[in-house]
Amino acid sequence: MIGLREWVALPDLGVAGLRAKIDTGASTSSLHATEVEPFERNGEQWVRFNAHLGSVVQLRHRRCEAPLVTMKTIKSSNGHAQTRYVIRTALALGDRVWEVEFTLACRKAMRYRLLLGSKALIHGQLVVNPGLKYIQDKPAFPATISPSTGVA
Q: Counting Cβ atoms within 10 Å, is residue 9 exposed (0-12), middle (13-18) or buried (19+)?
């Protein structure tokens, strides 16, 4: 069980101490990223980007690279459609670690730099209690996925 807000890490990207908003109404998860640049590595498509980790008051960012999964058109709640890059990376929440797809989007105006959508919650087999916040421990870092169990 998780609360409406939780601490997460993205170990493959070297990112820890991110506050995530849990959003069961959003299908796809999203990470605040700027300066997104596609490039090719060994014949495969990748993206390079700045992942923004801090709050509006305490800004932090990290330059990251990840294989490009696809491009996806996302429709916001106000009906505005936007095409975004999609990456897949490990997400650590509490004592669990699993692969999650994230769209890279400018979330500058949003309070939380990471939004965890329903697909990630289903894959992680999580139940959300919206009356609680930060009920899981901060994930240990660096966390890695065990090939046999899929958990840290």
A: buried
Q: Please state which of the ranges 26-30, 94-98, 137-141 shows the lowest mean pLDDT.
A: 137-141
- Give residues with Cβ within 8 angstroms of 50, minimum separation 6: 33, 34, 35, 61, 62, 63, 64
Q: How far is CA 98 from CA 34, 39, 115, in A?
A: 24, 26, 16
Q: What three-state secondary structure class fits 96?
A: strand
pTM of the entire structure?
0.84
Count CA within 13 A, CB hemisphere, residue 32.
23
Contact of 52 with 34, CB cutoff 8 Å: yes
